[in-house]
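Entry 14: structure prediction run for YgjV family protein. Input pasted below.
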Amino acid sequence: MTWEYLGYIASVFLVISLMMSDVIKLRWFNLTGCVCFTIYGVMINAWPVAFTNGLLALVNIYHLYKLHRAR
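Run finished. Output C-alpha cells:
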C-alpha cells in the first residue's frame, strides 16, 4: 500500500463527516479522517499535516467525551 492511498481514504472520511446531520456521527467520521491524516503525515514526513490533524483528533475526542457525558 502506498501512503497516498491513506491520504485519499482520510479525505473521504472528512468529506463524509461534513455530510452528517448527527453530530456524534460527524465527530466519529471526522476523528477517523484525522487519525488517518495524522498517520499519513508522519509517514510522508509532512509534519504540519500530522500536527494539525493530531490536534483536530484530540478536539474530536474531547467533544465526543462531552457528548457522551451529556447523555
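Notes: The helical segments are 3-17, 23-43, 47-70. Will compare against the previous run tomorrow.
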